[in-house]
Amino acid sequence: MALNRHNQNKRSNILVVTEALLIAYMGYITHFILVQLDLTNSAPIEKLAVNVGLLTVCILLCSLSVGLYEAKLRETFRGIIRRIFVSVGLSYFLVEVISRAFFDDLAMHSYYLPASVAGIIITLVIFRYFTNRLGLLGLGKVRIVVLGAGERASIIEKRMRRDVDRIAFDLVGFVPIPGDNREEGIKKEEIIHVKVDENFQQFITDNDIEEIVIACDQRRGTLPIEVLFECRLRGIEVTDLLDFMERETGQIVVNLMYPSWVIYSNGFHSQNYLRDALDYFINAVLAAFIFTFTWPFMLLTASIIWLDDGRRTGTSVFYKQERVGLNGKLFKIIKFRSMRPDAEKDGAKWASKNDDRVTRIGHFIRKYRIDELPQLFNVFKGEMSFIGPRPERPEFVEKLVREVPYYNQRHNVKPGLAGWAQLNYPYGASVEDSMEKLKFDLYYVKHQSMLLDILILIRTVEIVLFGKGR
């Protein structure tokens, strides 16, 4: 096994063992604190050991399932926190079910599990902060070098300028390759003038390089295949620029895509057959659950819209509009009306950030996404999901398909009430904006999973509660 992969596995094993000890310790110390506060009685050691062991195993398994122990996990600290919450939350329900079903006589006081889970979440978040930010346990940034300093390589300089964008790696520099367009290339980053020949391996060793990103403008006849092959055999990761950007930014750089990359990638169709089979059931149950709590707000919103201008103009409080759905099929989306009745008297227009066509109540219900609630009926009808690319109007789709490459691929999944693009690029009112949002939409189409859906839901709830979105 390559030395680099061996080191990565060693780091992951150390991380698993360390977190197992932390979880077990917090499970024990929580009981001790509850006893000292006279909130519970002292439990026998064997009873405590079974509960601590069960809690530790469940959290480790759930953490493993959400990717927290992946050797190549590339995630922001906020993303890691969300994964911790998901894994510990799932573990809470697992422990409750297992302990009540099989170890009812060994069940702890009702205070024990919630207090333990709260303490474990805080402990794991603090621990991950130090391991990621300070490089403890050898889990610091990956050192990378980029082959190429031209136009393609400049996408890294343009899109990843901030420190938070580079939280998972340490960029040593860019190595110019013959054929690079230097006029449109790297301007401010470190340029490394080193020949990529048989001595390149020595440069890799001297600088502790763990990954090479291929970003040259011309590949044919310029890439040293033998040298890269040797690096790969020695355990150095060799990554295409598109894969690197996809991994680090959560988007697919559409304007840099080439046919062979699409052919050899895992495509833009879901391979999760169980998820596809349960898609409607899960979405319908979730829609019914949300409708149970939101129908009073929906009734109140409809009444206010009617009082505001509905009774005067005779216009419906709902707004129905044709949109493009799964596989290009048209459907009618339902929303609360947030614009004036004559908003499109001159034809279809892109919505703008401070659109003067929006009514007084419209500004409020858009800010808190209340205008989207009637789309629950689209979910019940199977036309939409909770998570997916936002559906666009056919008039705009016709234009975007002609001007934006690969745009039709976003119709490989059902449109959604919330999406990956809305979280990362919240506003779009032009073809250029559609191109940017497509980069995130295609990332979602390619990587759709239950975990990604959960993470998007969590972030969407945060946006809605604090009114950050449109």
Description:
By secondary structure, this protein is of the alpha/beta class. The protein folds into three domains: 3-138, no CATH class; 142-249, 3-Layer(aba) Sandwich (Rossmann fold), CATH 3.40.50.720; 273-342 and 355-465, no CATH class. It is 51% helix and 9% strand. It contains 16 helices and eight strands. The chain has helices spanning 3-36, 45-65, 77-102, 112-133, 154-159, 200-206, 225-233, 241-249, 259-264, 273-313, 360-367, 376-380, 394-403, 420-424, 431-447, 450-465; strands at residues 142-147, 169-175, 211-214, 237-240, 318-324, 330-336, 385-387, 416-418. The strands form three sheets. Strands 2-1-3-4 form a four-stranded parallel beta sheet. Strand 1 (142-147), helix 5 and strand 2 (169-175) form a beta-alpha-beta unit. Helix 1 packs antiparallel against helix 4. It starts with a helix and ends in a 5-residue tail after the last helix. Belongs to the bacterial sugar transferase family. InterPro entries: Bact_transf, EPS_sugar_tfrase, Sugar_tfrase_EpsB_2. This is TIGR03013 family PEP-CTERM/XrtA system glycosyltransferase. Keywords: Membrane, Transferase, Transmembrane, Transmembrane helix. Its main location: membrane.
